[in-house]
UniProtKB/TrEMBL annotation:
Name recorded for this polypeptide: DNA polymerase I
Family matches, as PANTHER family: DNA POLYMERASE I, DNA POLYMERASE NU
Oligomeric and partner information: Single-chain monomer with multiple functions.
Residue ranges occupied by any 5'-3' exonuclease domain in the UniProt entry: 7-267
Originating species: Palleronia aestuarii
GO biological process, one term: DNA-templated DNA replication
Length: 928
DNA sequence: GTACTCACG
DNA sequence: GACGTACGTGAGTACG
């Protein structure tokens, strides 16, 4: 039966698909030979998704994927500048073009292209013919040039946004119906395609004119009647150029084609052909998906070749290591360590939490391959121990005696102890009466040199720098419910695992230590990383008192409030659902209640973030209630409930753990629990800080840097006005507002100041019009206007940004004022990642310098406050929290403030003063 | 295990 | 030819 009524033709804009896939995906290559295949992969995935999404009653009966062919088309003969400003096709994309044709054929879909024509013309011709035959057409593309085809059974579908575009969609975009789209385009022109149009006339004005005069020809003939003199003159002067533009944007609906619509009938792919293509491309995931769908067994793809490692780095690791069974053997190892002057140390324990973990054994390494394990608290094999006596396994030195032997070595100032994350071991040992010193830490060596390149855990480092995959801990203790603690591991197995860790550590140290100087980060490591280890270890062990009663009471109140809100939400929704499920909430909001808003993300789930719900709150009551519920739920689950669990039964306090090498910029990260994100911004949340208290006779003191990042920005970028303002103690946001908007300081309003404040923060983050617009909830153009004016007013800031990007592109890293290097491997990448990398590069020196400053303060703080009855407990990026005996608060504040304000000196003499605000009280809520 | 959401500076 | 974007974190919950 010939194509006609009841038939449905799908036309895919293949070239658009390819470009989109190319830019959306990282540069993927085929494992076996390095052929770039990222765009092919994305293209195939999009095709597959399209096929899966279009099953059912509305499935296409006919389909084709249409491509551009050649870069010279008939339009270039009309106008030689057509698409002249288009970039060359990227090098990696070129070889992928023929593969996308192959992919299309592998799916058994018609693959159309015509020399001298654009894909759009083929699409236009086929769409017109299908319409004339009485069938329906869906054009899968978001290209506005195709919108002229919509109507009379022809629609478009934007596969990226998942929206259909019909007549109304076209009118929304162009202000006119599809049949007048070319007229509007002819007037407005198109900078992307280099269609000239009429200068000074954009889509809005064009639509206005066309709607008033009916069509383009009438408009041009009656141009004299246009009331506005500027427009009138433009239309008269550029009439020919406008007519030419119309020819350029008008699609050719009447191409001669060697095939007819019937030849485009949908046929099922031949499973073997399709899988053969996908297998040859080595697309593992999609091969699996397609095989599942087609009920075929997935063909094998050869496993990728192992990463090549420098031969000399492929060190030989022993199969087994020495099990130290008695005192004599241990003494021999201790002697070796003394003789060397350094030793790698690693402790094995029963838990990751250093405050609760019990020591199970110690491993030592003095040279690559020369390592041992000293088991101390392994239990007998439970299978052999029928009576579960918890007896100790044989071949272990008594704990107390072993520690007695180890203590002099580990505390010997002439022997360097090397660890991987040695803060952990230091805390374990401290709880066993040993103050390990001096130390080196391979994790921190790596962090100083490689921040931004990769993580700094032992597994990553070993694989990357030694070409060796360590024995996974899971192979010994298992996972999930059946996981055991290390003291339950059989000693012979534990020996090989534990000694290997020490072996790896000493090899990493030998690899890293000589590089430190070459990388010019010796000072960073020695003044900002290593000295922080004992400081943080003590802070973590000190912990902070948290009042369980307060939290428990709050939990109860929150539970009641949540129940009430759930009831209200249920009534507003008209049904019961899990408020905590974004998926269910999205369905209620958008499907059931029909509120405006769209899908997003790879999963196709509706977004229900706070910003979206806030926008919806004007439409319906439910979103506001959900926001309230979310806030309370967060406070309860993350804080009032979870924090109670974290109170150490032995100390009655909460002990966080800081990771020194967690954040790329030099900031610390706090985990288990995270005490750097205790609520403060809302009144209800802030009350959680009431549970953080000082014990009887003590007071909590909090000191925080005022505007430290802006001050550092003012210094680095050398902005005299800002520096002056900081010196005079002015309100910096008000000053910015005054400079930008020309409002005298006396007439400043909170609203204008708020906007300036947002801009100041935006600058630190590597500002974008989009981001500022979203933050301030203003149109993007307006936000961009603010930014332009800001850069105009403070050209030094723009200069700093450009210089920083330049530096990063040339050197592959950026630096803080103290020499910390943050690598920026993505800075020369293309695609959306580039913007990310640029903003991160702008932010890193500012955030990183501030992090360095407070690190220096912390390192000096202990000596400065040694004579005071005070303990440093917490760090929250720009804030330090202390506990001090009542009566000594002011003395502490004076000393600590001096240390903090002078922390940059003498290494860096900032041209702006650092200022520190202080507070004190019974609780953190009062002190802050 | 991943995605989403939300707490902090 | 088009996307998606403020910087840096950690943790709890839902869901496949």
């Amino acid at each position: 039966m010939a194509f006609g009524k009841g038939h449905h033709l799908h036309l895919v804009d293949g070239s658009a698909f390819i470009f989109r896939a190319y830019h959306a995906l990282p540069p993927l290559t085929r494992k076996s030979d390095g052929l770039p295949v990222g765009a092919v992969s994305g293209f195939v995935n999009m095709l597959w998704k399209m096929i899966q999404d279009n099953k059912g009653p509305d499935a296409p009966t006919h389909a084709a994927v249409v491509f551009d062919k050649g870069s010279i088309t008939f339009r270039n003969h009309l106008y030689d500048q057509y698409k002249a400003n288009r970039d060359e096709m990227p090098e990696e994309l070129r070889p992928q073009i023929p593969l996308t044709r192959e992919a299309t054929r592998a799916f058994n879909i018609a693959c159309l292209e015509e020399e001298g024509f654009e894909a759009d013309d083929i699409i236009a011709t086929l769409a017109c013919r299908a319409r004339e035959a009485g069938g329906r057409v869906t054009i899968i593309s978001s290209d506005k040039d195709l919108m002229q085809l919509v109507g009379g059974g022809v629609e478009m579908f934007d596969a990226m946004k998942n929206v259909r575009i019909d007549r109304e969609g076209v009118e929304a975009k162009f202000g006119v119906g599809p049949e007048r789209v070319v007229d509007v385009q002819a007037l407005a022109g198109d900078s992307v395609d280099n269609v000239p149009g009429a200068p000074g006339i954009g889509i809005k004005t064009a639509a206005l004119l066309i709607n008033e005069f009916g069509d383009l020809e009438t408009l041009l003939e009656r141009a004299e009647d246009v009331p506005q003199p500027k427009r009138r003159q433009t239309l008269i002067e550029h009439a020919e150029q406008i007519r030419l533009s119309k020819k350029l944007v008008q699609l050719d609906c009447d191409m001669e084609l060697s095939y007819d619509l019937d030849s485009l009938e949908v046929v099922e792919p031949v499973a073997d052909d399709l899988l053969a293509f996908l297998t040859a491309m080595e697309f593992r995931t999609i091969v699996r998906r397609v095989s599942d769908e087609l009920g075929k067994e997935a063909p094998a793809i050869p496993e990728e070749a192992p990463e090549t490692v420098e031969p000399e780095a492929q060190a030989d690791f022993p199969e087994t290591y020495e099990w130290v069974r008695d005192e004599a053997a241990l003494e021999a190892w201790i002697a070796k360590a003394h003789a060397r002057g350094y030793v790698a140390v690693d402790t094995e324990t029963t838990a990751l939490n250093e405050m609760q973990a019990l020591l199970v054994g110690v491993s030592l390494a003095v040279a690559p391959g020369e390592a041992c394990y000293v088991p101390l608290a392994h239990k007998t094999n439970p299978e052999a121990d029928l009576f579960a006596t918890d007896a100790l396994a044989e071949g272990q030195i008594p704990m107390a005696r072993a520690l007695e032997l180890l203590k002099p070595l580990l505390e010997d100032p002439s022997v360097l102890k090397i660890g991987q994350n040695i803060k952990y071991d230091a805390k374990i040992l401290a709880r066993n009466g040993i103050d390990i010193a001096p130390v080196d830490d391979t994790m921190l060596l790596s962090y100083a040199m490689h921040a931004g390149l990769h993580g700094h855990g032992m597994d990553v480092l070993s694989e990357r720098y030694l070409g060796h995959v360590p024995i996974p801990i899971k192979s010994l203790i298992g996972t999930g419910k059946s996981q055991i603690t290390f003291d339950g591991v059989a000693v012979d197995k534990a020996v090989n695992y534990a000694a290997e860790d020490a072996d790896i550590t000493i090899r990493l140290w030998q690899a890293f230590k000589p590089q430190l100087h070459r990388a010019r980060v010796t000072t960073v490591y020695e003044t900002l990383e290593r000295p922080l280890i004992p400081v943080l270890a003590r802070m973590e062990m000190a912990g902070i008192e948290v009042d369980r009663e307060t939290l428990s009471r709050m939990s109860g109140a929150f539970a009641q409030k949540m129940a009430g809100l759930e009831e209200e939400i249920r009534e507003l929704a008209g049904e019961d659902f899990k408020v905590g499920s974004p998926k269910q909430l999205g369905e209620i909001l958008f499907d059931k209640l029909g509120l405006p808003g769209g899908k997003k993300g790879k999963t196709g789930a509706y977004g229900t973030g706070a910003d979206i719900l806030e926008d919806l709150a004007t439409e319906h009551e439910l979103p506001g209630r959900v926001l309230d519920w979310r806030q309370v739920s967060k406070l309860k689950s993350t804080y009032t409930d979870a924090l109670q669990e974290k109170i150490d039964p032995a100390t009655g306090r909460v002990h966080t753990s800081y990771s020194i090498a967690g954040a790329n910029t030099g900031r610390l990260a706090s985990t288990d629990p995270n005490l750097q994100n205790i609520p403060v911004r809302t009144e209800e949340g802030r009350r959680i800080r009431e549970a953080f208290v000082a014990p009887a006779g003590r007071t909590l003191v909090s000191l925080d840097y005022s505007q430290i990042e802006l001050r550092i920005l003012a210094h680095i970028a050398g902005i005299e006005e800002l520096k002056q303002a900081f010196r005079e103690g002015q309100d910096i946001h008000a000053l910015t507002a005054s400079e930008m908007f020309g409002v005298p300081m006396e007439e400043m309003t909170p609203e204008i100041r708020r906007q300036a404040k947002a801009i100041n923060f935006g600058v630190i983050y590597g500002i974008s019009g989009f981001g500022l617009a979203r933050n301030l909830r203003i149109p993007r153009e307006e936000a961009q206007g603010f930014i332009d004016r800001y850069f105009e007013r403070f050209p030094g800031i723009k200069g700093y940004m450009d210089d920083t990007i330049r530096f990063a592109k040339d050197r592959g890293h950026v630096e803080t004022l103290f020499g910390r290097k943050i690598n920026t491997p993505e800075i020369n990448a293309k695609g959306p990642g580039a913007g990310f990398a640029r903003r991160a590069a702008i932010n890193a020196p500012i955030q990183g310098t501030a992090a360095d400053v407070i690190r220096r303060a912390m390192i000096r703080m202990e000596a400065a406050t040694a004579s005071l009855p005070a303990t440093m407990l917490l760090q929250v990026h720009d804030e330090l929290i202390f506990e001090v005996d009542e009566g000594s608060e002011d003395a502490l504040i004076a000393v600590a403030r001096e240390v903090m304000e002078g922390a940059a000196m003498p290494a860096v003499d900032l041209s702006v003063p650092l200022e520190v605000d202080a507070g004190q009280g019974r609780s953190w809520a009062e002190a802050h």
